[in-house]
């Protein structure tokens, strides 16, 4: 711990107020500290007039500057113990900048940025060398780091002369302005990602040639495909000191349609993507939280929404970055941020070096996301495209929501974790319509299940290769216990599934007939099925549900159960698979049928028995579990249970309904020494008998951290 660099400790970062110009540098530094922040994104230019003009910076540079505010601010900020990270825009520029360096579409038209004014710079133009020159100028100051807002491509770009030339150098192909064939399209995707990574690499090299201790990080890719913007967190990690994304930017549309767990999910993904692999420690991560709605940028969120964004961020191991306006400094939103900053500062030791202790993992598939039409909205992307069968984004959201509401602690992993970082630490991996899968990933998953791991999957998982080409059969057919056919059945409108409730997974489901998802694959069992009641021990599979025949009209009698498998349980090696032939995760995200959640939760708990139980709050209280092995109280271990309460009427949440006397049970063989609640700031009574620890939490509002210290290595 003592050898960690300043940015490797938990910290809160302030996004400098864009309307703070009338406040002097001294007061800016004082105010940042009063609000509980450890570092600040210091604005390098005034962006309020529709983007950057590239010549009016607040620091000395050959590119042009208005005045040198940075020289005055730095000693004041450092005097107050603040780290200064210069915010430098590398994507959004106005009419006064060099328009020859802007991105153009296939028709040669400049591409407007998504802010109502200005254009997007192209990293393949001379803009790259210009930006590296700025990096060297910034490096001459005693700054602590630089944050790059961007770089990004627009989904329609770029087809400028620089891109055309560099694309041919990249792959030997001409960059067409008409429809691309498949080979060219795949090369274009890789070219754009490689271009973004090269830009960040060169900027970092230039900055650190003048200031070796300065850190650099950029605005990265969240839970969406990186294809529209050319972003790839894994590819750029080598050149960054931290990894950040806009998980706390909400309000692009009505909050009722935004996942309430967006910040948490983004933080979980970044934590895995921030790991260089091969045993190296992960780099720090940052979740960007805005005090206001995106779009209504001057209208602050409620205090409850801000507290939840903070809670999800720090619970999942990320650092909070918070932006507000000076005119909104006294709003409940900014007050809530201040209180959370002070909480983090007071309890930093409980977040220091903590690691996830989850045994379940949910796979985020970059490959599948890259070939899906759905995309999350951010400041860099426009509204998502039309939905289609097998939408991965919606499937992932549905799976996340089920695990979240079922109080199952879990991580998000990506393909690299499966390929290189030994998924054996998990007992269960959930694959929500992970359609695009390489042979390498499929092979690792087979090994995982063969060795005793378990999977839950749906619809077209592993039916397409990693470039989006449909295969003749699932790459995981042996694991699923079924073969694919050419037939995708649907869309169904008012059809049903019959459940067979004699298995523990389905025993608690009250209704034996439940709605069918709109699409499903007709599959054949391996080996061919004769009768579900015969030969199960020998062949290792069991059909848990089947689709019923099509219903001709509403109110018509239910048709007979068909031979089409809906849910298949299969044994493979020492592990098991639950495969759902329909797009059930996607359908759950739209309809939230309770039986869908219960089936998946029951399967997850049967395949990977839980060790933490709450006696209330199902669907409203989520659990994140992190540990600090062997570094607490002179060598003892520590487990931190982060409880996040989202019990409110509707979003935006004006208040969260508290829970009283929440019972917590933990199955553990380690002897507990103490239990403490950090928000309540009090020691909790507990009992420990056999291998069961029981604790009662007097009150849970939005957030609580229950800290359990164990004797010795313990947990």
User: In which order are the strands of the major sheet placed?
Assistant: 13-12-14-15-22-21-20-17-18
N- to C-terminal distance: 19 Å
From the 3D structure, determine the CATH topology of the domain at 360-607. Answer: Rossmann fold
Please give the CATH class of the domain at 360-607.
Answer: Alpha Beta
**Radius of gyration over all CA atoms, rounded:** 26 Å
How many beta strands in the DSSP annotation?
31
Strand content: 15-25%
**Protein structure class:** alpha/beta
General shape = globular
Main sheet record: 9 strands, mixed
Give the proportion of residues in helices: 25-40%
What key attributes describe this structure?
715 residues; 17 helices; globular; Rossmann fold; nine-stranded mixed beta sheet; eight-stranded parallel beta sheet; 31 strands; alpha/beta
SSE map:
Layout: E1 13-15, H1 25-34, E2 39-43, H2 69-79, E3 83-89, E4 92-93, E5 119-120, H3 127-139, E6 145-149, H4 161-171, H5 182-210, E7 215-218, H6 233-236, E8 243-248, H7 262-273, E9 285-290, H8 303-315, E10 319-323, H9 332-346, E11 355-356, E12 360-363, H10 366-370, H11 392-405, E13 410-413, H12 415-420, E14 428-431, H13 439-450, E15 454-458, H14 477-480, E16 482-489, E17 496-499, E18 513-515, E19 520-525, H15 536-539, E20 541-548, E21 561-572, E22 575-580, H16 584-591, H17 594-607, E23 612-614, E24 621-632, E25 636-645, E26 659-667, E27 672-677, E28 682-683, E29 686-689, E30 692-700, E31 703-710
Parallel strand pairs: 1-2, 1-10, 2-3, 3-6, 6-7, 8-9, 9-10, 12-13, 12-14, 14-15, 15-22
Antiparallel strand pairs: 4-5, 11-24, 16-19, 17-18, 17-20, 20-21, 21-22, 23-26, 24-25, 25-31, 26-30, 27-28, 27-31, 29-30
